[in-house]
Structures are given as C-alpha cells and as structure tokens.
Amino acid sequence: MKGEKRVESDLALIDKVRKRQPLIHHITNGVTINDCANITLSCGASPVMADAPEEAADMTRLASALVLNIGTLHQDQVETMIQAGLAANKKGIPVVLDPVGVGATPMRTEAARRLMNRVQITHLKGNAAEIATLAGVQAEVRGVDSGQVGSDLETLAKKAAQIWGVTVTVTGARDWITDGQEQIEVVNGHELMSTVSGTGCMSASVLAAFAATGEDPVASAVSAMATYGVAAEQAARRSRGPGSFRVELFDAIASLTGEQVKEAACVTWRG
Amino acid sequence: MKGEKRVESDLALIDKVRKRQPLIHHITNGVTINDCANITLSCGASPVMADAPEEAADMTRLASALVLNIGTLHQDQVETMIQAGLAANKKGIPVVLDPVGVGATPMRTEAARRLMNRVQITHLKGNAAEIATLAGVQAEVRGVDSGQVGSDLETLAKKAAQIWGVTVTVTGARDWITDGQEQIEVVNGHELMSTVSGTGCMSASVLAAFAATGEDPVASAVSAMATYGVAAEQAARRSRGPGSFRVELFDAIASLTGEQVKEAACVTWRG
Amino acid sequence: MKGEKRVESDLALIDKVRKRQPLIHHITNGVTINDCANITLSCGASPVMADAPEEAADMTRLASALVLNIGTLHQDQVETMIQAGLAANKKGIPVVLDPVGVGATPMRTEAARRLMNRVQITHLKGNAAEIATLAGVQAEVRGVDSGQVGSDLETLAKKAAQIWGVTVTVTGARDWITDGQEQIEVVNGHELMSTVSGTGCMSASVLAAFAATGEDPVASAVSAMATYGVAAEQAARRSRGPGSFRVELFDAIASLTGEQVKEAACVTWRG
C-alpha cells in the first residue's frame, strides 16, 4: 500500500521539474555531452557544463544538482570532480555518479572508487557490470549483455546502497532501483536505446533533473526512469532506426506530461 | 531611407556566403562544437576547429573569420584564443566573440574581459545578461529570462559598442544590433530555439560566415540574424519538438535563398 | 575474374560485423566524436572512446580495431596515439589512421608523419589532398575540391601503399582503394555527404568495424566504403537537406543487409 501510494504521488514529477527549471551542472564525457545538455533542456531543466578546475566548484554552487560522468575521464578531472562534489555536498544538492566503463581499465576503476570515497554520492547509476564492478564482485554478475539483473545483483545493489548510503539505479531492459531498504523495478524503455550512444549518459541527466526537485532519492529515481522509459517507448513508435529514434526521444520527453507518465509507467514496488 | 536601402541590399547576403565558401575558424566549446560545424556548412561556408596552442594561430591565418566561444573554457585556452585573435587582427579578418555564461563565475568573466582587452573584437554576440555583465552593469539588466531587451540595455549596448569599437548583437526574442551609431532590431526567430542547446553558439557561426564576406559589420550582423531567424521559423513549422526542430534547422538554412530571406525578414532600422 | 570473385564474397561483410560486434577504440576529434560512436553502433559494432594517456593503451588491448583521427589534435595526444597504436600492433589488430587536415598546419603534418613512422598503420584513409600531402607531393594534387582522384593521385596512392605497407583509401565522389597491388574504385555515395560535418570521420569508424572482422585489408575497405556509400544513397532519397540526411544515414546503415549492399554496390576491381 505504501508503495502504491508513492507511485501515485511521484510519477508526475516531470511537471515539477518544468516548473522549477533547476540548473544541472555536468562534468561529463566529450562523446555525449551535447545529448546530455539537450535531454536536460527537454526535461524542462537547464544544463551547464563546466569542467575547468578554476570554475567547476563555483558553477556547482549555482546549480541544483551535479552529474559526474567518467566516460572520457582525464586524470586531472578527478580532482575537479571531487571539488565540485564537495561543493555540492556542502550546498546539500544531489550528486549523480555515472561510472561509465568502470572495470574496463585500472585508471577508471580507481577514479570511480576515489570519487565514491571522497564525495557523498546521492545517486549511483550504471549498468549491471558497472555497479557490480564498483562493489568489487565482478565475477558474480549475471546476464550483463542481456540487460537482465540477476538475483545476485539485486542483493549486491541493496548491500552497496546500504554500505555507501546511496540510491542505486541499475539500468537495463529492466531498471532496478534501491536505497538498501526499498526495491523498485521499472520496465519501461525500448531496445532501440541500446543502438544509440549516450542513452545511458542521458538517463543520468534526467535523474539529476528530477532529483533537483528535492523529492526523496528513491522517488526521484523511479519517476526519472519511468519518464525516460515512457518517452523512449513513444519515440520508438515513430522511429525507423537509431538516427530517428534519437531525434524522437527529445521530442517525446519534451511533450510528456506527468499524467501521461502515470498512465504508461510500469513500476513494481517491492517494498 | 538610408536604413531601408541597406536592408534591401544586404539581406540576401547568404547568396554571397555560398559563392565564396569562406573558411571559418572556431575555438569553441565542447558541448555544441558539432552543431557549430554543421551550421557553418549549412550556410555554405567551411568550418575548421583547431584549438591546440601550436596550430591555432596558423589555422586562423588560413581562415576568413574567427569565432571565439568561452562556453567550456579551460584556463590555457585563453592565451590560445588571444594568439588566434591577434593573428586574425593582423590579417584583417573579423573576430566574433561569444562570451557564453560570462558573469556566472569569476574565471569566465575575467577571461572574457581579457579577450576584449587584448584582441580587437569585431562582433560581440550574447544574450542580454552576458552583454550587460561584460559592460559591468549586471544589476541593471531587465527581462533576461523573457528574452526582452530593456531600454537600459539598448543604451548600454550602444555605449559598449562605442567604447570598444565593436558591433554588438544582443540575442533574444528580439535581436538587437548596434555599432554605437545605428540600431537595428530583428524579430525573426522562434521560441523553440530556447529548447535546443547550441542555438546561441550556432548564431555566432552564422554571423562569422556572413562577416567573412567582407560586408560591413552591421549589415553582416543584420543579415545573419535575419537569415538564421527565418530558417528557425521555417524549421519550427515542420517540427514536433526540440529534436526535430534541430534537424529541420539545418535543412532550412541549407535551402534558404537570399530572396526568401528578404521576403520573410522582419527588420527595423532605427537609424 | 579474381576481382569479381572477391567482390561476390566480401561485399556482405556487414553481416559479419553484426555477428561479432567488435569493440572499436577511437582516439579521435571532439567535433565528430559522437557521430563516430553512433555510426559504429549502427554498423553493429561497439564504440569506445578513451584518450587519457593512463588508460588509452589498456583500452586498445580490449578492442578489435583502433581508429586514430587528428582532427582536433593536441600535442600531448600524439604520444598517447603512439602508445595505443603500439598496443594495437602488438595485439595484431588493425589500425586506421584518418589524417584530418594534414597539410593545413606544420603541427598536424608533423604529427601525422610521426604516427606513420612509429605505428604500423593498416588503413590510411583521407581525401585526395590529405593523402597527397602525407606522401609529400601536395603540388601534384588534382581536383581536390571536386572530389575527383586524378591519375597522378592513383599512382601516388599506389606508391604510398607500397612504401608504407598500408592499404590506402582515398575518399571522394569516387573512393579509391589500393594496397599497392590491387586497385579498386567504389562509386557509391551521395553529394549530401559533403554538407554534413563528420561524414569523413565516420567512414573511418565503418572501415575499422569492418577491418575488425579479420578480413584482409583491401576486402574490408572495399566492403566498408560500398556499405557506407549505399547507406548514404538510401539516406539521400529520404532527406530534404543536411539535417535530415544525417539522421537518415544512421537509420539506413543500421537496417542494411549484406545482400542489399551486394545488389547496390558499384565497385570496379582493376586488379
């Protein structure tokens, strides 16, 4: 009952994003930086991307949420990310960490762990392999390629959330969200998402825009993933392939109402 | 009358851009760099983006105009921008400065002022807040969010143009262009422009492509803003949201003729 | 006859790319990096972009092909490219060099030559001016602007291929491929390609994805250029300008089958 009530009240959170137009500061990768800016705008929030060490923390102090993405990380960016993260912590705004490709190289894994240790992350978002790697149990991951979250990972995500005090969002064919207490599954989305670079990075921007409203982390993550997934479903219906899907995704999320998300969302609250 | 005659003669300037295909060198931000390259091509000019200190000035010497954009500035880029700017000054080609986000952080404000002091800028293009900040009167800005240029800003832009010897283009729902003597208002454009990242940056590329024809700065700016605005209006008619608007914007500007711009332009010359 | 048999057997190579989903590591320019990632995905391969000196070679060791593109080169990237290139050579995976703008500035020319000297390049891909410049005979280039490959360049490309032991792909209205022995012309493609930034860079990604299958270099290059060109022809039929062409290009290549490429390819094997 509690779960169902939350779903009722929170799935229209995009309406609040549009009303508040929060500024979302990104320190992110160079491949998908433009997509992240545009999806932030399409949600009704405002993006700013500033990663110079001389101004990153200053920019964070103007923002309502911070996204850290290590997709094309350079070593000197890690310290900049930490400074921006600490500024966010001090201001009390949510920090979303997208540990892109963690586990692929030692540098990336070390950088992600250092960020986790130095900054109080609010939202950790990644695919099954990334979340498992960060938690140090790469060998136990099941079904990464198929986007399935195995039962091992459910347990793992829950424990990771408890240890670090973060809300974990594991993306895939089903998205899995947990703060260590509650566990929620969102099954909206479309397989075309995996054919476009940046759909993962963009989900972190959406998450940050929703978190910036001040709603509690789990509610923000559920609403963000459902909204993004519903938009992807609508976009897929108008698309002929990855190029048109990407265009339609911006159009779809920009025209979505909270009411439409509530109707189309497929969310299971596991309490 | 003088004003009206100029409008007649200059609004078809895109035809000349296409004929000359000028090379436009950009030192610009990482968020919208691809959009800037593509809008330059769609205008009929050729883009080149090179920001290594070892080659930036060399590249400027091959170009017919230079765009400096501080949207994702790093500290060491400032000196590179100055070197490229000085090379442009020496060659006598126009320099467009887009002081993105000036005023948001001390680093950005200082960098923009340093560029203004060291390089003879031809065109200063920004929104009302950016232009006002650069002129040191942030507190007096009116209606930035609504895109309106208040009467204070008109006075301010005029004074800024006189002091620095630049042509100022203040973008918004109405674009306002002045060289300190003439004042021109262009009201073409569409509100969808504010839903896509990079529409501001792209207007600087269009401006540079037009300025590269050798027309006088005011005439170039008026023609560029009118052309870009007419293209945006056409694109909006074919769009369902920000994703499709962006695609249509490139298509629209690529197929526009000077004659069509002259017919659809909404320009008021205030003498 | 030999030529015709090869064409029969190799033009459907995209089917093998989709089956193997090779990881393609790019160290590339910031203007078109997103397009390169997306065209790689649309071919059925997986892109990764990592250019930090601390991890670039590590990432190459996970990949099945490496793309080096000097479009927005910084001086410190050259050594990173060399380290990644040497890792690729050691692993025995193909290396594609796209010497964007070589000849425009001394820095760029020197960097490209240094890469050629230090790394065993598999595929050298560029337009006529770039290939000629690298081979040190800029003055002899004919018809660069029109995209025509003059007879001088045919001879030149052949010699360059022999001297360096690379497969040379000269792109233009006609693509010209040679390994110093065989010479093949591919005339698929569309003039809209020259109106979109990144169509050249993307062809290097397609080439790398095809080369990663392990087919011989000439066969890979012919199949890649024919596939990309056929996709461009399909995209052009659905486009109204550069914006829509770019969208349709991703859709087209993502839905192409090897059978369709074989039917539409226009390849002349000159033996």
Automatic annotation (TrEMBL), chains A, B, C:
User: Which positions does UniProt annotate for ATP binding?
Assistant: 125, 171
Query: Does the record carry Cytoplasm as a key word?
Result: no
Any Gene Ontology biological process: thiamine biosynthetic process
Pathway recorded for this protein = Cofactor biosynthesis; thiamine diphosphate biosynthesis; 4-methyl-5-(2-phosphoethyl)-thiazole from 5-(2-hydroxyethyl)-4-methylthiazole: step 1/1
Q: Which Pfam families match?
A: HK (PF02110)
Which of this chain's residues are annotated to bind substrate? 49, 198
Q: Which reaction does it catalyse?
A: 5-(2-hydroxyethyl)-4-methylthiazole + ATP = 4-methyl-5-(2-phosphooxyethyl)-thiazole + ADP + H(+)
Q: What is its EC number?
A: 2.7.1.50
Q: What are this entry's molecular-function GO terms? A: ATP binding; hydroxyethylthiazole kinase activity; magnesium ion binding
Q: What cofactor is this protein dependent on?
A: Mg(2+)
UniProt keywords, alphabetically: ATP-binding, Kinase, Magnesium, Metal-binding, Nucleotide-binding, Thiamine biosynthesis, Transferase
Q: Which InterPro entries match?
A: Hyethyz_kinase (IPR000417), Ribokinase-like (IPR029056)
Q: Which NCBIfam families match?
A: PRK09355.1, thiM
Q: What does this protein do?
A: Catalyzes the phosphorylation of the hydroxyl group of 4-methyl-5-beta-hydroxyethylthiazole (THZ).
What family does this belong to? Belongs to the Thz kinase family.
HAMAP family for this protein: Thz_kinase
- Can you say what this protein is called? Hydroxyethylthiazole kinase
